[in-house]
Design a protein that fits this description.
7-stranded mixed sheet; 5-stranded mixed sheet; 26 strands; about 15% strand
């Protein structure tokens, strides 16, 4: 039996270890063990992956590369303090561990030797373990007894972590210790331990899941060290505490790297790289100001990295939208210092303006027990201020207020006052984010304040250094350090006020008539929108240039210039100005018969007013078997009077409608617009050109409205047949209506098609429309269809295309290729059965056993590539909806019916061109539903329009009956 992954251990010699830990994929099982050993040795030759490099790689690949390459490190105050703090913590942990054992049971090895396996020492402190080219400085090893049958390493690694909270990186470092120990001894430790926090708490950590990730990181580091090309330099959050910060930032600034922009994700950077944009300056040229529609006026602004890049390039403040800063009370500038690792707040700073003077309050806590006291003092100070309104920067203070309320709720004398403080507090970052773009790489308070010419008294002042000063004060109680922190906090409050005043000024935008007084401020909605490749009216600064440009237009030159040199153009111009003055000839004159009786008294003795002759001209078309002819009928009728009641009236029965256009002309118009997908303007132009009519531009839209109202009941009947049937194909597509996005949904079975319009893609209407549907719903993988309570069949051709597309993009992804191959081998016999027997469940059910086997095999696969994992989840999520067609008759495995109907609408959408309204698109969809249903049923849409029928099935019956009657007469 071959496992997907096996661990092979080779004989070792401690001191000059020859151990290779390799992971054999089952697809490569034919290779010999010596081949793997050779490959491993080649990869690891002249390489050393230490604990320090491993830890650096977790934080930054560039840092790991620099450490591996031996690049000189710059002195970093944070690193120096961190090392001192760790050594102190390490000593305390060692003392605590030693207290659990006798002195002769404890030992300290500078390096691991073979004697350790038989050693009687229960605790080994501060030892270096090396195997092949990986080395770890293990803080402690503790001997444990294995209770299971599997032989484990008698020692478990222990790691010391000074912080109170354990991170994933801490656990991975413990796993790296275990991996090094395992590689050196050939035996895996049972588990590991982490001692952390001031109280040296012990956390037991399982290593099984962590080892996979650790091995993967080690392999990536080995690949990096084997490569001569350094990794791409990307600045990240770790830079602030890195000893290579100055070097890396200088290189990034010289290259104008995109990672200089704080907040830009790796995904966004890759997206820009794919577009050929690699620098901040290049990105700045991609910003295009957009006008926000009125319906989206209340929607928050979207953050634009390109706009920040533009602000940096031009060194000007850019304002997007209309930022608001609502300060209605007395502004109180708040800044809080704390130790995040302990959730401890030790310093609260308040800056309050009283007249022309400022008052600074600083509430200091020596230890955790005094936190409540400074919170109470803080509230008492605010209570003495009339209508105080807290102004802070970022979410740290927001969290502080909420935590203090929960933590010391019993100490609050007026809870309503605290609630009011929290509700009315202003996070200054909110109006800045996505609306005010300072020419800085980030929205940090220090960067923005420094741009506004504010300076801190201590150049080293930062949140990271404040943390160092606090820890050092706790050790030494040095009053100078305390004063440093209080001054830093007070200056933060002052900087906050400086930024708040600048933001308030930017929110007070001048009117459109006024120009901004400060040239360093740019409002994006007043920026000129450049569309270099569009037809537009040119604006000229000089009137002479405007005159010259106007003289170059086509119509100007044709009507004013060329007409003087061409007799032909002269005649065309005179002819076009005459217009249509000639009346069209009448093809037929019909005199209407007199009425049989008086409509008032029912008398039959009637008289004719010969002097009151009237007529009605109807413009129509006569459609023959192979011809179309203009047909104009003139109807003549008179007014009549009754001898008995002496009333006067016209004939009630008339062979024409209120419209002056005949039914065949109207049917032909709708046929050209809907089925032939001709634009309305082109339909009117062709009718005028071919038949000599003088139809106005509103002729076709009016007829469309009239016809859609006539067939409204037909549309409702089609939709009702679909939703009460046993099969529905559903799909949706986007449409532009008067410049805004909307959606058209299509529902179809094998005979009817109905289109449905919604303003959004939300599927709330589906619940109501399909609430009684109990048949099978065939759709794509859009999540809104999943909420429908009925059996569902997902379109497998969508899945096939997605798989194929990703496989083409990743041709060397063996995991994906294997998954696609297995799915294809599962589907192919099903398609062959459908081709041979049709969609009959009695023939298709035999494939269900292969579906079960496919999923059973899939569940055992442990994929590593992101794409393969994604498809595995997709298969498992839709397990009950991928092969529903195997259990039902006449249920297709794809959604081509609705896709075909969507294509019909897409063609019509091109003809519409986005110029329709909500009402207009609904009229189009009503008529298109009738048209496509006729096509699905094999009926001529034009003949159905000419028939005057509203029920398509009834029209089919009448047509079939007429054919049978004509055949019987012919045979007779």
């Amino acid at each position: 039996m071959h496992h997907p992954m096996a661990i092979v251990n080779f004989p070792r010699q401690v001191g000059n270890t020859e151990i290779a830990v390799l992971f054999l994929d089952h697809s490569a099982k034919q290779r010999s063990i010596s081949d793997y050993l050779t490959d491993f040795r080649i990869r690891m030759m002249n390489m050393l992956i230490t604990e320090d490099i491993f830890q650096a790689f977790l934080k930054c690949e560039t840092k790991a590369y620099l450490k591996s390459s031996g690049v000189d490190e710059s002195r970093c105050e944070y690193n120096d303090w961190q090392q001192r703090y760790f050594e102190d913590f390490k000593q305390r942990c060692s003392i605590q561990l030693r207290s659990n054992f006798r002195e002769d049971e404890c030992a300290s090895y500078t390096s691991l030797s073979q004697k350790l396996e038989n050693s009687k020492h229960s605790l080994v402190l501060d030892c270096v373990v090396r195997a092949d080219e990986i080395q770890s400085h293990v803080h402690a090893l503790e001997q444990v007894v294995s209770t299971g049958k599997t032989k484990h390493n008698p020692y478990i690694p222990i790691r010391f972590v000074p912080s109170e909270k354990i991170t994933k990186h801490d656990k991975l470092l413990l796993a790296f210790d275990a991996l090094t120990l395992f590689t050196a001894s050939g035996k895996m430790p049972l588990f590991g331990k982490i001692m952390h926090g001031n109280e040296q708490k012990t956390l037991k950590v399982k290593l099984t899941e962590l080892m996979k990730m650790t091995r993967s990181v080690v392999e990536r580091i080995a690949t990096q060290q084997a490569s001569s090309t350094p990794p791409q330099l990307i600045l990240n959050k770790h830079c602030a505490e890195c000893e290579f910060m100055t070097r890396c930032r200088q290189i990034a600034i010289e290259k104008d790297e995109l990672s200089l922009l704080s907040g830009m994700t790796e995904k966004e950077r890759k997206k820009q790289h794919n577009k050929g944009i690699f620098t901040v300056t290049q990105l700045s040229y991609t910003f295009r100001p957009r006008r926000k529609p009125k319906r989206l006026a209340s929607k928050p602004e979207k953050f634009h990295h390109a706009l920040r890049a533009l602000a940096i390039r031009e060194c000007k403040i850019h304002v997007a939208g209309k930022p608001e800063l609502n300060i209605t009370g007395t502004p109180v500038y708040l800044d809080v210092e704390g130790v995040p690792d302990r959730d401890f707040y030790y310093l609260i700073g308040l800056r309050i303006k009283k007249g022309d003077l400022y008052v600074q309050h600083s509430f200091w806590a020596n230890e955790m027990s005094e936190e409540k006291e400074i919170w109470v003092s803080f509230l008492q100070t605010l209570a003495r201020i009339e209508n105080p309104q807290l102004i802070h920067y970022g979410s740290y203070e927001t969290t502080f207020l909420k935590r203090m309320k929960e933590r010391y709720g019993e100490a609050i004398e007026n809870p309503a006052f605290v609630d009011q403080l929290i509700a009315g507090s202003v996070n200054l970052l909110s109006p800045i984010y996505a609306q005010i773009y300072f020419p800085t790489y980030s929205n940090g308070l220090k960067e923005i304040a420094q741009y506004l010419k504010f300076k801190w008294s201590d150049n080293a002042a930062s949140g990271l250094n404040a943390l160092i000063w606090r820890y050092e004060w706790e050790s030494s109680k040095d009053s100078n350090l305390k004063q440093k922190l209080v001054t830093y906090n007070a200056e933060d409050c002052e900087a906050l006020e400086k930024v708040a005043n600048a933001v308030a000024q930017l929110c007070q935008r001048p009117s459109e008539v006024e120009k901004p007084q400060d040239d360093n401020i740019v409002y994006t909605d007043s920026m000129e929108r450049e569309y270099p490749f569009r037809f537009k009216k040119n604006n000229f600064l000089l009137p002479e240039m405007k005159y010259i440009n106007q003289a170059a237009y086509w119509d100007y030159q044709r009507d004013k210039i060329y007409i003087r040199s061409s007799n032909l153009l002269n005649r065309v111009s005179r002819k076009s100005t005459k217009g249509h003055t000639k009346s069209l000839p009448i093809n037929k004159v019909v005199e209407c018969p007199p009425p049989a009786y008086c409509p008032k008294c029912k008398a039959t003795k009637l008289g004719k007013h010969k002097s009151k002759r009237m007529n009605k001209i109807v413009y129509d078309l006569r459609l023959g078997q192979a011809s179309i002819k203009r047909w104009i009928v003139k109807y003549i009728f008179y007014r009549y009077f009754c001898y008995q009641c002496e009333s006067s009236f016209s004939p009630q029965q008339r062979p024409w409608t209120r419209s002056k256009f005949g039914p065949d002309l109207l049917a032909y118009t709708i046929y050209q617009n809907i089925e032939l997908r001709l634009p309305q303007e082109n339909v009117a132009r062709s009718l005028n050109e071919l038949f000599g009519f003088d139809l106005q531009l509103n002729f076709v839209p009016n007829q469309k409205t009239r016809t859609s109202q006539f067939y409204k009941s037909t549309y409702e009947g089609i939709l009702n047949k679909i939703v009460t049937g046993r099969l529905i194909h559903a799909d949706e597509t986007k449409v532009s209506i008067e410049g805004k996005g909307a959606y058209v949904w299509v529902f179809t079975n094998l005979e009817e098609v109905a289109y449905y319009y919604t303003e959004t893609r939300e599927g709330d209407f589906l619940q109501e429309l399909l609430q009684k549907f109990k048949g099978v719903l065939v759709s794509d993988f859009y999540a809104v269809y999943d909420s429908i309570n009925c059996p569902q069949q997902k379109c497998l051709i969508h899945l096939v295309r997605d798989l194929n597309g990703d496989l083409l993009e990743q041709p060397f992804n063996e995991e994906l290729k294997e998954l696609v191959r297995e799915f294809a081998m599962l589907m192919k016999p099903m398609i062959e059965t459908v081709d041979r027997f049709g969609l009959k469940s009695r023939f298709l059910r035999k494939h269900k056993v292969f579906v079960v086997r496919f999923y059973k095999k899939l569940s055992k696969r442990d994929y590593q590539s992101e794409t393969a994992i994604k498809y595995k989840k997709r298969f498992e999520k839709n397990r009950d909806k991928l092969f529903t067609f195997l259990d039902h008759d006449d249920v297709p495995w794809n959604n081509n019916n609705s896709e075909h109907a969507i294509k019909a609408f897409a063609t019509l959408r091109k003809a519409i061109g986005g110029a329709s309204s909500d009402k207009g698109i609904r009229e189009y969809l009503t008529l298109l539903s009738v048209c496509e249903t006729c096509k699905y049923k094999g009926v001529s849409f034009l003949k159905f329009l000419r028939s005057g029928e509203k029920d398509i099935d009834e029209f089919i019956k009448k047509t079939s009956r007429a054919k049978r009657d004509s055949l019987s007469l012919g045979s007779g």
